[in-house]
Amino acid sequence: MARIYSKRQAPHLAPPLVLILIYAGLIVLGCAALKLPFATTTPITWSDAAFTATSAVTVTGLAVVDTGSAFTLFGQAVVMLLIQLGGLGLMTFAVLILSMFGLPVGFTHRLYLREDLNQTSATDLLALTRMILKVVFICEFVGAALLASVFVPEAGWGEGLWQALFHSVSAFNNAGFALFPDSLSKWVGNPIINLTIPALYILGGLGFTVASDIWRVRRWHRFSLHTKLMLVGTIALLIWSALAFGIMEWTNPGTLGSLSWSDRLWASWFQGATTRTAGFNTVEIGNLTDGTSLMFMTLMVIGAGSTSTGGGIKVTTFIVLLLATVAFFRQRSSIQVFGRELGLDQVMKVLALSIISVLLILCALFALLLCHEGDFLDLAFETTSAFGTVGLSRGITGDFDGAGRAIIMAVMFVGRVGPLTLGFLLATRRPRRIGYPAGTVYLG
Amino acid sequence: MARIYSKRQAPHLAPPLVLILIYAGLIVLGCAALKLPFATTTPITWSDAAFTATSAVTVTGLAVVDTGSAFTLFGQAVVMLLIQLGGLGLMTFAVLILSMFGLPVGFTHRLYLREDLNQTSATDLLALTRMILKVVFICEFVGAALLASVFVPEAGWGEGLWQALFHSVSAFNNAGFALFPDSLSKWVGNPIINLTIPALYILGGLGFTVASDIWRVRRWHRFSLHTKLMLVGTIALLIWSALAFGIMEWTNPGTLGSLSWSDRLWASWFQGATTRTAGFNTVEIGNLTDGTSLMFMTLMVIGAGSTSTGGGIKVTTFIVLLLATVAFFRQRSSIQVFGRELGLDQVMKVLALSIISVLLILCALFALLLCHEGDFLDLAFETTSAFGTVGLSRGITGDFDGAGRAIIMAVMFVGRVGPLTLGFLLATRRPRRIGYPAGTVYLG
Ligand SMILES: [K+]
Ligand SMILES: [K+]
Q1: Which of B308, B337, B347, B443 has the most A C-beta neighbours within 10 Å, making it the best mutation to test the interface with A?
Q2: How is this protein situated with respect to the membrane (chains A, B) (predicted)?
Q3: N vs C: which end of chain B shows fewer Cβ within 10 Å?
């Protein structure tokens, strides 16, 4: 009975399936568009086109061809469009799903809707979508204007404006695609690049719920718990990653060692900020020490925020993991933070999401190791980068053959649509129906 | 008030502190004994002695000197004694703590004691301890007798009996110390070695609660939930690891490739079984493919059973992690298994234990990478091996300098006493006193 009833309530395709179909469809279309003769300067293979389309739609940024030289203006525009649709699409989808299920999205009180999908009026959703689009386009326009002040003097009006627009869209959507073979290394010490690009990807990575909460409320003590956790977590992670990167790479001749003092500081900030999901770089990632690479892998798994353009298990998930551990040591059976309490059901969600993520990364790495010769650390780094839709690489993306590419493409896809699909499952959890006697197992 | 009351109830040193002090004391004594002039054939450094003592007391088996040739009979006897005390001590301690806190240890109904420490009579605990000792010594004696049938014909009565006793004790306690530089590779195809040694370490690794439950109850449907999970989990992991090892290494000339068909099967069984915590090997671990090495690392983290001589996060913890994930996908908010229900509090314990373990491994590996040059995979493998008190190595244990050794020693120590200390914290969890309003964070 219960099943029939819930079926009647939602007779449409399940939203996660819609999401997966949309993303798969975008990739197919993007692949076809990139394979058009006038999209590339020299012909690329279907495999190249499929990989680039997947990387763009999942806003990852791993590349098997050089975006700036292999694609014509049309090809680059296709990549930019795929990035915009892939990044914006997921953000919008996430916000719409949250609002459908009555979770506060922080935009307007009208959108605190109940669980029944039918109560969400199309007008409300349309208004919300329009709001998201407006915010995104304003951010990208301002970003492009600022970037143009660097690119236009160097490349002229036409080329410079295009570069500014492309990198602004790529940055806000945390895509990490750049038009230069060494990403943004040329501007390692340029203040405008070092402030504008990170501002765009950090903003995009905070997520729409946080951005709108900040915009609407503007006072710390009235922020939602989610916003507070995201802000504290993001700032802490930025400080930690920039500091650790700077200290560990300071004298490494392959990265910071060859730069001036001020460039080293800029590069530490940029690399520290880019790692969780943005994927741009201003130093050569393949030259990182093994210790920094390990730290980067942990940051790539953590990722950015919910309802954002970023990937990973999400900052809030990471914080709840830490809080649960602290609560455990303080011998509490619940998590208290900022005067709110997180129930055990949230812990269970976090646990499931983390386990699935770890299993996914391990299985993918295992498969890669079986079918591809290569350094263990390089492959582990690449897999983690694909999972977190980060796009940083130690330089082996081009080496993959068919099977290796297929694995990385699958990880990028699951890394992008997986967490939201799980998030949907969380929101539709059924209450248990049968109780069993409690059991105990010894775990220590 | 509540704190004063609980202090009155338990005026002794906290059991975890006792455990830590005992283990630290054993290591110091062992180090001093191994440094005695007549303990070694050629003088060893204090660092060598400390590392060996730590490895023996924590039943890990990582070695910086060759146990068989560097130590005299006295020195080897010290190592064996440290193994016995380290393995047996923790098992006994764990069982005693469980029984003190009224958790069923499956041995006798008299021992279902309440939470108050004072209600546990010394007689009960003594009887339990005597029972444990009896079981352990019978197992080790039978094991030694079987092993003697191999070693005595090869090495004569004196040497052969000693080797049989040493390896029986080392195997039952999951220590992995062998008297031969290539562990047990010489007997890669010997059925007695391939059955006796694994039988000892699997039995030791199941844990006392499981062994006594099997001994006492003898019927599947009356086994405790813990016993059922341990048996199913252990068998599944044995099958998986032996199969995967065999398939992946079958044609690797450095491991199985150079062996006969029957030896390959024996070696697959032995390596599959040894990896979770025992630490013996019959093929060269340094020659494993990267894929197998990754699989081995996951097995080393999983480890053996609670109240056992083995390490790791424990098989039951791993199973609860998987069950929580499955429950999540089935949209249940509790875990049902074998007609019992595991509450969310158990999930929280599992989460805390897993997070702490992962953080420990990552921090140790990070520290190792900073202070020691070496291959990333080798160092990751070594760290995981130390955490799981496994003792398998890709051959770099001897390369570590002071800092590297100190890190590995610390990881072995925490890997051994950490989980039980946490287990104690689990058992003494306080109920929360203040409720906060519920908060929500978005995790997907
Ligand atoms: K990216
Ligand atoms: K061991």
Answers
A1: B443
A2: Multi-pass membrane protein
A3: N
